Amino acid sequence: MTATAERTRNRLVHELTGHGRLTEAWRAAFAAVPRHLFLPRFFRQTPDRSRYEAVDATDPGALELIYSDRVLPTQLDGDDSRWDESRRHGPIDGAPTCSSTQPALMAVMLDALDVTDGHRVLEVGTGTGYNAALLAHRLGSLLVTTVDIDAGLVRRARRSLAAVGYAPTVAATDGAAGHPGNAPYDRIIAACSVPQVPAGWLAQTRPGGVILTSLHREIGGGLLLRLTVDETGAASGHLLDDYGSFMPLRSCPTVRTSALVRAASQATGDRHETHLPGPLADDGEAWTALVALQLPDVARLDIDRPDGPVQWLVHPDGSWAYHDISTRMVEQGGPRRLWTEVEDLYSRWSAYGKPHRPHIGVTVTPVGQQVWLTDPTEII
């Protein structure tokens, strides 16, 4: 398997480099670290993307999957036994709670982290340990700390890292608290999403240090945020030009979307034809980012029906909007008119020439244990 794995790994490195995703600074790490040793087993989606089937690294075609540019789930519903269940009975339903990130996205984020020799790095969200291995190859194990709330994942990641010769600090803890024992850090990178930047991350980052994370928004958006911390403990920065959807930190509160949609489906509201060019989507464009930032507590549910796709927007206060994508008709009710807010944002964004995402700046400031985002749309 070693020669075959090396060939497939080199092919992936060549592909990522050719597409401009992998820079010279990280090429050696991607070429050296064997992703397959961090993925002894994983899931792949069925062709209709409705369920997951178990894959062993020794299965025919598994290496090609591992060294393809795709995300590979490794755990469903926080339960490691689901893989065995699928192996015995075939494809199963479930929600991914751990995965190996798409290599192209890993390469983009590591490059944006802008590390140099001697930098001390904290990774939040150990997962399989593959990203920690890339960091350890680049910086040395002593300068890398990685944390994950799932003790089982941490044990397996530690074993995988040791098997390929790396020994960073690997701890089982809630990533929202960081890891103060090895602070301060020059860089913090999160392989998970957070609704707001935890105050602990700011406190554990050196002045001039960088925090790179994904902002969790129930409506979507895939917002990759790069912040630089200043001497006061505040930080400012901007959204990256790349889309990167990550699972939320497990301690992150989430909106009960299905329950809200069930309640809204029994209500009636105002109807009108939308002037938006299409549905909201996780396409990584500036428009999606703007909506996600301005409607932080609004959740989205997309449903494919036999007579055409529909889209729900719901809020915990009972506000809701129902968009029939085929007919372009919208019905909405509750205290807020959610779809009208989206349409107003689109009109304002269009009037200013549809500015690109890097122009959307973000500032976070700690006040006790609270962190907030300032208005990110001053440009409009």
Layout of helices and strands:
Elements: H1 2-18, H2 24-32, E1 41-45, E2 52-56, H3 62-66, E3 72-76, H4 81-89, E4 96-100, H5 103-113, E5 121-124, H6 130-139, E6 144-148, H7 151-163, E7 169-172, E8 185-194, H8 199-203, E9 205-215, E10 223-229, E11 235-243, H9 257-264, E12 270-273, H10 286-294, E13 299-305, E14 308-314, E15 320-324, E16 329-333, H11 338-351, E17 361-367, E18 370-373
Parallel strand pairs: 5-6, 5-8, 6-7, 8-9
Antiparallel strand pairs: 1-2, 3-4, 9-10, 10-11, 11-17, 12-16, 13-14, 14-15, 15-16, 17-18
Helix pairs in contact: 1-2, 2-6
What does this structure look like?
The structure is a single chain. By secondary structure, this protein is of the alpha+beta class. Helices cover 29% and strands 29% of the residues. The chain is built from eleven helices and 18 strands. Helix 1 runs antiparallel to helix 2 and helix 2 (24-32) packs across helix 6. The longest helix has 17 residues, at 2-18. It is globular and about 60 Å long.
Summarize the structure.
With 380 residues, the chain is α+β, with helices and mostly antiparallel strands. It has 11 helices and 18 strands. Strands 7-6-5-8-9-10-11-17-18 form a 9-stranded mixed β-sheet. It has a 5-stranded antiparallel β-sheet with strand order 12-16-15-14-13, with helices on one face.
Main sheet record: 9 strands, mixed
Helix vs. strand class: alpha+beta
Number of strands: 18
Give the integer mean of the pLDDT values. Answer: 91
Helix fraction bin? 25-40%
Strand content: 25-35%
Q: First CA to last CA: what distance?
A: 55 Å
Please tell me what the overall shape is. globular
Strand order of the largest sheet: 7-6-5-8-9-10-11-17-18
Rounded Rg: 21 Å
Low-pLDDT residue spans: none
- Number of DSSP helices? 11
What is the N-to-C succession of helices and strands?
Answer: HHEEHEHEHEHEHEEHEEEHEHEEEEHEE
